[in-house]
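Can't paste images in this forum, so I'm doing it all in text. The chain is below; anyone willing to post the predicted structure tokens underneath?
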Amino acid sequence: MTKKKGLTLEERIEQALVPEEEWPYELPDGWKWVKISSINSNMISVDPKKVFKESFRYVDIDAIDNKGHKLREYKITRILDAPSRAKRKLKKNNIVYSLVRPYLENVAVIEDDLNDIIGSTGFYVFDAINGINVRYLYYYLLSDEFTKKVMEHMKGDNSPSIKKSNFEHLPFPYTSTKRQKEIADMIDNQFEKLDRAKELIQNAIDSFEDRKAAILQKAYTGELTKKWREENGCGLDSWEERKLIDCGEWNGGGTPTKSKKEFWESGTVMWVSPKDMKSLYITETIDYITEMAVENSSTKFIPKHSILFVVRSGILRRTFPIAICEDDCTINQDMKALSVSQNINPLFLMWILIGQEKKLLSECSKSGTTVESISMEKLYDYDVMIPKRNEQDEIVKSIDKLINFENEAMELMDVIDNIDRLKKTILSKAFRGLLNK
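Text version of the structure:
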């Protein structure tokens, strides 16, 4: 949408009204649905090589913490190393919104007043016009209603994204500047209380993780079953070094096109994506697909008891999610699956790999990529020590007896998930005018 100079805020809003048939829902009196482009100034594109002498601060999608929805860091980038996507001029109070994989909600506000910040063209950059509260806009961009509208226009299987032109036609719930500030203040207040509770819960979970790490170290060093080996007349020399590529059959996944409803509606096949990898045992997923989708897309059936790995996600900066599917499933393109050989207990291998999580991340992570990812070549080549099957089973039994952290940690994780869902509920109410102080 071309911005017309000299228009008042009211005139601009009136020219950008969304037709009633395109309203996501009915707004309170005095509110209006307008095209999102109408509340934004033009994005500024620059060539860093023509503006800066030596280096600049670069913000790519990878620099966003999509859990806290904040800028994690600037990448100090030399002019000679400037990527071709480094073109969006950024300044304080700009909001960056990733048009690539928008369901990951890579959204953040630029909080620093600096003149050398450049963003990726993978972002839509909001430089809100006068009369639009930045925090109100920021919170709306994180609402489920907005994310769903974005996903309706998402295209592509491997790196699903939305075109800038489609994005600019999405609806925005405009209300008075005073009301915008009141709503943003109420959200701030309620989120602050929830974040304090979340921090306390996370501290408890971290203590469980420390206990788990100590037990798993004993498992993969053989100390956990030392007495068992003595009783059964065998030693550590019975353990065999094996590369992960030789531990079974590996498979990747894919995303059936969202434009075909028959691939998703009434689906019964689990479709595992990184957002499902919050438990060690996958028994259900957020999204399900149909058997028709499996037959007509790049995803394929993964047999039950396969080990699932997240191999592409911002979460790989902190952790390497690994789990076992309890039933046949499918996975998206950011995942890999290992169906283990018959002489390997999948639970044993899962625990061993979880116990070496930091080492795996250190040795197998790719560098210089837009989104954190695992080098499959390095993962395939990773060495693990495999005892005989009967000792594997004993290790799994011992871990099950020693570790009761899983149920406790999962209960606390459920509380955190509930807090996150409550935040989404607060946002949903806020942009319907239903949020109370």
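The CA atoms of residues 206 and 409 lie 9 Å apart. The chain is about 35% helix and 20% strand.
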